Backbone:
């Protein structure tokens, strides 16, 4: 059987690439297709595959400005030839699901999210003072066309897998398609508690994309004055560093060993964005650390809030009497985050590291691998019939 794996771009190891890595382990002989690839930015497991790139790979400034080529990405992904492939596995948060499958191909898409840049988070990327003026104007003109393309090409997918119930609902809303939920993997072997002592600081690990709302955390901790460590980088790095107080320390991107050490020693992990899933939330919990998170999106599926922050409208009734793993705040404002941090301090003693870790183990990479393998094998069998 000839297998192709498709991923939007290979520029770093984040949540989507950790899902991709499992695909690559399951199918070591598969060809890997991507819009662009930056060597030594992803794992050796991914790089062990033959990697085929699009014409975007050779465009100017692509290493740092590839997002500016978003209007060209539909043409680039449609330029690959999959006519001879039996199985296509696309790992998509942008355009990967838009590939043109062969006449006899089975196309299974693991959807991290419908393209957030053109749907509900358009204004976060292209509105406000932080948006570059010319790209924002161009994107407002192109947005309707990109939306039509996104919906039309969803019909090229035989089966959708959503990474959360939150994304499942968005697939239904934008594509009018049903999806099976299989939560992304967390390496609970790598992220496991050791002998580290807890220290007096809060932590965030995040790319500095607009929707991640790292700016909200910086503003809140500026006012609180509590020690705060930020691991990550991105387009908003310089503005954030300029406004951060002396109590806030920027570490840039670190390897997993260093991130693990920071998880282990923080008082709590902070999460401000409305995420599709949010693997870092579970990595922190796998380390036995409580979290302070915005009570929206994927966090509602991965965090058990304490009783005082639980709200019936979240629809997660089964969490009400469970051992808590974190605290929610419900308004995406610095004030709401500050209140959540202060509430966390008042209930900090109720969080038990082992109970928090046991909750995270339910999302382990072995669980994900088994569910993905079983799903693909079952759909292949149905497809052959």
Residues:
């Amino acid at each position: 059987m000839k297998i192709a794996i498709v991923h939007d771009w290979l520029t770093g190891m984040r949540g989507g690439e950790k899902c991709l890595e499992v695909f690559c382990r399951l199918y070591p002989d598969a060809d890997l297709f991507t819009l662009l690839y930056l060597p030594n930015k992803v794992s050796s497991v991914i790089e062990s595959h033959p990697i085929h790139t699009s014409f975007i790979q050779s465009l100017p400034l692509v290493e740092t400005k590839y997002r500016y080529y978003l209007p060209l990405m539909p043409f680039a992904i449609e330029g690959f030839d999959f006519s001879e492939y039996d199985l296509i596995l696309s790992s998509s948060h942008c355009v990967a699901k838009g590939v043109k499958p062969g006449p006899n191909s089975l196309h299974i898409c693991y959807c991290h999210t419908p393209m957030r840049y053109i749907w509900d988070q358009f204004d976060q990327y292209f509105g406000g003072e932080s948006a570059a003026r010319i790209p924002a104007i161009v994107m407002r003109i192109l947005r309707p066309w990109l939306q039509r393309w996104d919906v039309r090409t969803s019909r090229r997918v035989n089966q959708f897998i959503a990474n959360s119930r939150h994304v499942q609902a968005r697939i239904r809303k934008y594509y009018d398609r049903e999806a099976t939920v299989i939560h992304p993997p967390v390496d609970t072997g790598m992220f496991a508690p050791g002998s580290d002592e807890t220290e007096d600081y809060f932590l965030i690990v995040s790319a500095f994309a607009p929707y991640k709302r790292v700016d909200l955390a910086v503003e809140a901790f500026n006012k609180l004055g509590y020690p705060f460590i930020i691991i990550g980088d991105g387009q908003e790095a310089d503005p954030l560093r300029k406004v951060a107080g002396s109590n806030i320390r920027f570490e840039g991107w670190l390897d997993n060993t260093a991130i693990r050490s920071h998880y282990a020693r923080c008082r709590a992990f902070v999460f401000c964005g409305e995420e599709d899933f949010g693997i870092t939330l579970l990595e922190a919990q796998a380390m036995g650390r409580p979290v302070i998170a915005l009570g929206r999106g994927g966090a509602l599926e991965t965090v058990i809030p304490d009783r005082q922050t639980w709200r019936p409208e979240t629809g997660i009734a089964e969490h009400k009497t469970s051992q808590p793993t974190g605290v929610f705040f419900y308004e995406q404002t610095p004030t709401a985050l500050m209140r959540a941090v202060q509430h966390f301090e008042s209930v900090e003693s109720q969080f038990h590291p082992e109970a928090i870790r046991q909750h995270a183990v339910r999302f382990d990479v072995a669980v994900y691998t088994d569910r993905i393998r079983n799903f693909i094998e079952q759909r292949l069998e149905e497809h052959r019939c």
